[in-house]
Amino acid sequence: MALHFSKYLKQKMGYLGMINLRSWSCCFYQKQPYLSRRFESFKADKQLGSLHNGGDPQVMNFPGGIVKFTPELKFLSDTPEERIHCYRVLDDSGQPVSSNFVQIDKDIAVKMYKDMVTLQTMDTIFYDAQRQGRISFYVTAIGEEAINIGSAAALGMDDLVFPQYREAGVLLWRGFTLQDFANQCFGNKGDNGKGRQMPAHYGSNKHNYITIASTVATQIPHAVGAAYSLKMDGREACTITYFGDGGTSTGDFHAGLNFAAVMEAPVILFCRNNGWAISTPVSDQFRSDGIVVRGQAYGVRSIRVDGNDALAVFTAVHVARKMAISECRPVLIEALTYRAGHHSTSDDSSKYRPIEEIEWWRATQDPVARFRKWLEGQGWWTTPSEIELRDHARREVLHAIQVAETVEKPSLKEIFTDVYDVPPSNLCDQEKSLRKTVERHPQDYPHFLF
């Protein structure tokens, strides 16, 4: 189907007229044109006589807009006659089914593929490292590489990323090195978080990538608030927040979506609908047509995308970003995909879904293989290049792990830093208590000295 908001690319964008307020406020709003839309309902032409549209008794200008009356007793249907279509560019074999996508040059396309392969390789090796007891926890993005890299490639470096815990590829695209990833997972001195976060909970101020938290969907209100701040500062940037289908079952999702719509925050709300919230299928989470319809209910422009199609994801995010910044509006993207790996190293997904189902998705819907076929069709990729890339990526990941294992752990005193300017007395007492414990049991803390 055609891209729902493709007309945006063909129309010249503008904004509504300014509000005639007092002189001081008028100057302010002229500098902030996006604020004009919020106050349309308070324009002076809305007199008592205009509450009815042209005197028509079957129309009423209720708060929020004009509503027509009807004598029919008709409830809205609980299920649509047809599900919202899913935008895609490449079919399962990597062949374009449409020319309606944002063109990308060879260098960007090749980098996208290389990062997808690197992410896939890193996930495989780090997962094995956890199974070997070398790190305590890990989360993979197997089956969702196109979402990671396709969306990251469409963003600007000034855009703020509020991830969940399956978007390491976005950070990889922005320049976070394999050594940086390994340092975080091993919690050594090279870790930005000083060893205080769970493995795979990355964060980088340098790359505008907000530190991951395990709590589900708390990043959504944060992203909306930050987007509103960007708008108030007149910045040419937006925020993007990622979350899974399970995240949409939280209050934070609904509060964040409504706040974004009402305050017209330039935020991209990106839902990875991979079918499972750990062991809970979407059929046990909601009865609506997925996530995309929820955006419309809150007054947010929305689109459903094939999350295994890197070109479709890139195009949707590219256009959504332009909308968010130029129009100062939120955009919701629902990417349909499948979590081809376990939820995390603490999970065994074979306990709640058929192994045959997992293998089918891995074999026939691999987004990395699909994008490679398209690259080959463009004449931009060859088999020798593939062999060289995968060999290089594997060696680089293994080297990063070997180095990370030899780096010292952060000092225990780092537990008590970076929160308070002047530590409170109870925190000082805890530090003294821990210090005494280490002194009494040095054999238990050989690498954690103050």
TrEMBL record:
<dbReference type="InterPro" id="IPR050771">
    <property type="entry name" value="Alpha-ketoacid_DH_E1_comp"/>
</dbReference>
<feature type="domain" description="Dehydrogenase E1 component">
    <location>
        <begin position="114"/>
        <end position="411"/>
    </location>
</feature>
<dbReference type="Pfam" id="PF00676">
    <property type="entry name" value="E1_dh"/>
</dbReference>
<protein>
    <recommendedName>
        <fullName>Dehydrogenase E1 component domain-containing protein</fullName>
    </recommendedName>
</protein>
<dbReference type="InterPro" id="IPR001017">
    <property type="entry name" value="DH_E1"/>
</dbReference>
<keyword id="KW-0560">Oxidoreductase</keyword>
<dbReference type="InterPro" id="IPR029061">
    <property type="entry name" value="THDP-binding"/>
</dbReference>
